[in-house]
Records
---
Amino acid sequence: MSTECTFPAATILGYPRIGPNRELKRAVESYWAGGIDEAGLQRVADELQDRTVARLVELGLSAADSSIPADFALYDQVLDATAALGALPARFADLAGDDGSVGTAEYFTLARGDGDRAPLELTKWFDSNYHYLVPEIGTATTFSAGAHRLTATVRRQRQRERGVVLRPVLVGPITYLLLAKAEEGSPEGFDPLSRIDDAVVAYVGILASLAEAGAEWVQLDEPGLVGDRGGELAAPGGLVERVYRQLAGTAERPALLVTTGYGTAGNPAKPGEALAVLATAGVEAVHADLVKGAKPSTEALQALGTTRLVAGVVDGRNVWRNNLQASLEVLEHLQGVTGTVVTAATSTSLLHVPHDVQAETALPEHLPAWLSFADQKVREAVVLARGLDGGRPSIAAQLQDADAALRQRARFDGVVVDRVRNRTRDLTEEAFTRGPAERRAEVQQQRLGLPVLPTTTIGSFPQTGEVRGARAAVRNGSISQAEYDQFLRQEIARVVRLQEGLGLDVLVHGEPERNDMVQYFAENFDGFAATEQGWVQSYGSRCTRPSILWGDVSRPQAFTVPWISFAQSLTERPLKGMLTGPVTILAWSFVRDDQPLGNTANQVALALRDEIADLEAAGVAIVQVDEPALRELLPLRSADHQAYLTWSVRAFRLATAGAADQTQIHTHLCYSEFGEVISAIDGLDADVTSIEAARSRLEVVEDLAGFGYSRGIGPGVYDIHSPRVPSEQEITALIRTALAALPAQQLWINPDCGLKTRGYEETVVSLRNLVAAARTVREGTDIGEIEHALAHS
Ligand code: MET
Ligand SMILES: [Zn+2]
């Protein structure tokens, strides 16, 4: 290792990879479709990488001092680590070359599967909306040191004119194994982390090859230490210390920066302990998330000695302009207490935010000055470093600008709206409570007269090229609003007729007017703004464009009612009104950072409550409020779960509890891992809940029965995540599985989720089979009796 290991005064942990115009997304998809070959894809990726480096230099990072991270995954950074380690599950063993390395085609096979081989599973990356590919580790998994892509990147940049020195980024060994799941067939209770020693050997090899390629620093990301296991692992004498002693003790290596992020690493009651442990182990620089995590204690700072502290004071997760004054105070404090050497940095990679506020042309006038996307955040880190070095006068103008923007934001009309505040303040317990569930079920059945095992869908119908085309056409002005509305009415009428023809019991309008289930609400609520170019990577080549919740939220006028009542006017059967729930709206937007999330959630809830009241007034008898993100926002530490579940469940209840007993409230959740949240789901007090269940072959019904869940439940019997058509027999068998655990009166028959990503061809056949299966089961004598009883109650 070089004895000179100075670290830059400013850095970022990572930068959006997809490209300002989603160049990488397009290139990767074109490669999959056979439009370009591997060399073509590599050319686009290299060009983008060069432009990123140039842009970061323009923003103030140096090309020569390791301040620019090399985190250019083609699909996912965890998949990159899997490929670098050659740690493939047995079903993909043939994808590795003799030296354990994985080529480009094989890399994508891991991500997408082939033939009968299922791809690696996708899961949320910590509490973000980014999804990574889960490593599968078993007792026999082999680990090799094949970080060829990363070393090639480092080498290629070093060989450029004037030589760019990047800082390669890799998921650290402990986090890698914490994020893994046990490979199928592993012994009961097998913990992937038990393979740490073999993994470390491979990391030692990777460090050596990166040093040889010319890397002076390497960044190992260990955000896994913020979870429940972090406290024990990062305690003095624990696994973190042992592993990093080994890595730091190797001769051939670049200097090491270990990052955490997404909260306080290690024991939350001893902030900074994990950093001190890493320093003791011999790591040259440690990073702490000072936005979501706690400030390290003085004791921990003292223990850092000469180890540099990379201080994450610029929020990598949100889009608000930094309070430079406050950040500088934090940095000065850290530096002042113990003489710790401090770098100004982001709290996480900037992967979670869009590229550049400057690319937006249609934001409300007041908003751009309050915002900071990736490029602005790079500048913030650079400015803070300058201020820390040169004192406040050296950045006086920037401090003043940031301060002025913050003050303007705080008093802006719309950020605080008295009318909205008064409503949330004056809420009594009554606003959160409906009548008794049994009584509701009774009056709803009287009103709806549904058969036993009622069939329905989750809301959206296939969004065909025609639907997307019409939306694009009205946006670019080639058709008028009136023509577009007419098109939507035709589409809705077609979907309603189709469902009647199929014989579904509760119909939907199909959601053709919605570009996205959250953005559509953001566009119709006050307090939100949508971006044009604000794409962030969700997984692989998929990006989302979260809206920005900047002010107090309210609903100026009913907006779903016209579509829902039009659809209802076309049929005698009950039609469900479709809304997105408060927690999901928050989870999939950038939310304001100046008040507790629970307060914001209640404002959104009241806006939805107004919409439900208008739907009821229009004669709608069933309203579904989707909360697919309820479980997603669950805090990383179990100690924090209860507080979160309390405010999120209350927000849902506030949205729905204004509904009359005769109005049936449905909710939909897209997952079946109910375990830890089952009582929260019970707490939502929805009359009917649909969930994903087909893939796990309805395992969840046992849990529900064990819990004593007593309201309506629709475990999905049709997996909509693939074009595969489930047969009538197969669905019949699933319904019988459900019936073995739960009473027929409680069960609904529906798919796992909305149909918007499916094609009509498979959808129609699948739904026909679903209706036929429900009928077949209904005709079983015992159930026939129940139905008879229901009809006469
Ligand atoms: C991700 S959950 C989706 C629910 C929505 N109602 C739909 O059907 O598309
Ligand atoms: Zn869903």
---
Amino acid sequence: QEYNSTQLQQQPNQPGLVALPSSLNSVVRNLANMPEKRVAPTIDNAEDFDLKLPGFLNKNKTLAILLDYDGTLAPIADNPNKTVMPITTEVVLNKLAKHPNVFMAIISGRGIKDVQNRVGISGIMYAGNHGIEIERPDGSRHDYQLPIEVQENYTKLVKELRANVEKNNAWVEDKRVSLTYHYRDTPLDIKESQKQVAVKIIESHGFRANQAHEAIEAKPPVNWNKGEAALFILKQQFGENWADDVKVVFAGDDTTDEDAMRLLQGVGKSFRISTDPQIQTFADFRLSRQDLVSDLLKWLSSAYGL
Ligand SMILES: O=P(O)(O)OC[C@H]1O[C@H](O[C@H]2O[C@H](CO)[C@@H](O)[C@H](O)[C@H]2O)[C@H](O)[C@@H](O)[C@@H]1O
């Protein structure tokens, strides 16, 4: 099994890992120069962007906009097939995507074809399956190679989940290399226990179980995630010194987006969409409502003269 530094801290019960007293934990973090999650300043309305980020944007500098899809560009719906981007978001997103000084990438947990069809903008970069598959505007791809053993375990995992917990309205979304176990419509009295069985099955196959909206994301145990994918995309597009030349903005709403928020700390500005005022995040700001994403995009587009 492979773990990155954050997961090492979050999973002290893994075999071979020693849980540190909390006082030592912060010493270790400082030594390793690792950022910590905390309650981030909040953006509550469109005016807050200018007020809280004065001077951040510069229309003469390239802007890289990296965005999550579900819960960010489109509000959460009760079924993944029912998501729709609000028209205002769609319009401003299309304008930004065409700007010569703007680079755009959508980094989603969905399968790549699925998210491409839903966003529907050509000429931008897409990453699917939490960054495992990446497609450039010219159609060329980067696929993170999963070890054979992990691929085999994935096939077994799908089978076992389907046989044991695809019941009581819960279902498995098989995305070839990662899956989502959806349990929104499972009756309340058995929801939690059935979900716990699913989590156990996921972990017994060596996969990571991440809490999502009425769903569990099962991700392969590799050191590749939305954060690594974001850095890979920026390096490929702008070279090793991308941080000197490019203004980076990232927005996402989920636990899986935190990987990007963590790795972009200090080199970009990131926004976590959450209604929870106490949420702990690596993001620079919390957007208190999903519809503020549209305002974020309008703020970017007006700074770039659109
Ligand atoms: O990384 P994202 O673009 O945010 O994708 C994350 C997952 O989104 C989808 O599930 C979530 O959104 C659904 C539609 O709003 C909702 O019904 C579900 O409860 C959410 O968990 C998608 O189905 C997954 O494949 C993505 O991994």
